[in-house]
Amino acid sequence: MASQLSSLCLPNSPSLPFNFSLCRARPSLAPPAATPSLSSSSPSPSFQIVGGRNSGWRGTGVAQFGGDEEEADWLDLDADLCHWTKGLRTVQWYPGHIAKTEKELKEQLKLMDVVVEVRDARIPLSTTHPLMDSWLGTRKRILVLNREDMISKADRNAWATYFTKQGIKVIFANGQLGMGTMKLGRLAKTLAADVNVKRRAKGLLPRAVRAGIVGYPNVGKSSLINRLLKRRMCPAAPRPGVTRELKWVHFGKDLELLDSPGIIPMRISDQVAAIKLAICDDIGEKSYNVADVAAILVQMLTRLPAVGVGVLQNRYKIDVDGHCGDM
């Protein structure tokens, strides 16, 4: 189902057409607005979904809406998401190893010639750490949007234009198949070529270019490195939190790569982004109620007639129109 829903969680995207037409094109390029802090009380798994344009959604919390209020926000998916998340427990996920990793990573950044930030191509604005820019400073940077097979060509072009206008070099990749990995290696060496020029000018011997691979959990950092090296050097699995330690690996004599655990903010203030992370499996499952996220996903599909709940019915052979049972 991933390919059919690839653009489902795109944040406020560049105002260009998208093949799946899942989100209304809007001129705003900013990430979704932050949602106020919510109660973290443990919910019951019972919920109800009512399909259709004028339907409301009652989750495990107290969020209920419909009629005129919903009609006003019919075309604004992010506004709908804000409504749906207000009554749910706050999604927060911060495993104990992340604080230690963040401290160590800041120290290792001083040794890096170029930094490669990996994001999920489906939700690139929701998979970047809010402090990333301040950590990197003026250091040379490459942005990799991984899982390019899960977005349309139009999405790809729109995001490429968006980031290029910001002066960010972007590469689209598929870490599972190795697409984009060789281009990444060449670009990293090119950007850091002046390192050895300066060393030779000082009478020093050249050394390998050092590139750090950073990003959110489960965006494919380790898989990209393994594909680039053409062997499994870093642990990788389709779930967040697998990599727990920093690890330097060598790519020939000219390039050294630092694999790092996913870094996520201690507190996720933007709960709309948190739901997108949950839907795309970029955050630990224990941090949210699966039934609530599934309910929101189905309700999102009812807002997107170009896709609709038919994709779920076709894939899982279940009828989700009108209600959804307990999970």
UniProtKB/TrEMBL annotation:
- InterPro entries, per the entry: GTP-bd, GTP-bd_ribosome_bgen, P-loop_NTPase
What is the protein's name according to its record?
G domain-containing protein
User: Sorted alphabetically, which keywords does the UniProt record give?
Assistant: GTP-binding, Nucleotide-binding
PANTHER family hit by this protein: DAR GTPASE 3, CHLOROPLASTIC (PTHR45782:SF5), MITOCHONDRIAL RIBOSOME-ASSOCIATED GTPASE 1 (PTHR45782)
Which residues are in the G domain? 211-269
Region named Disordered: 32-55
Which residues fall in a compositionally biased region of kind Low complexity?
35-46
Q: Does the keyword Cytoplasm feature in the UniProt annotation?
A: no
| Gene Ontology terms, MF aspect | GTP binding
Task: Report the source organism.
Answer: Eucalyptus grandis
